[in-house]
Specification:
mainly alpha
C-alpha cells in the first residue's frame, strides 16, 4: 500500500465525509474508472481493426458463400 495526499473540490469532500472507509471507496472508484478507460480503448481498437479488415472479410464471405451454394445446386 502507498499513502497519497490529494486535493478535492469542496463538494466532493462533503460527499466523501460520511463514507466510513474512504481509502477503499476511492480505490474502488479508481478501479472502475480505469476499467472503463481500458474498455473504451479496446472498443476503439476493435472498431479500427474491423474497419481495416472489412473488405477482406467481405471477400472471404463471398468465397465461402459461393462454395456453400455449389453444394445446393
Amino acid at each position: 500500500m502507498n499513502r497519497l495526499n490529494i486535493t478535492l473540490p469542496e463538494e466532493l469532500y462533503e460527499e466523501l465525509k460520511p463514507i466510513p472507509n474512504k481509502s477503499r471507496f476511492i480505490a474502488d472508484a479508481l478501479r472502475n474508472q480505469f476499467k472503463k478507460i481500458k474498455r473504451i480503448k479496446l472498443d476503439k481498437l476493435l472498431i479500427e481493426g474491423y474497419k481495416a479488415t472489412k473488405d477482406e472479410d467481405k471477400n472471404l464471405n463471398k468465397e465461402w458463400e459461393e462454395i456453400t451454394l455449389e453444394k445446393w445446386e
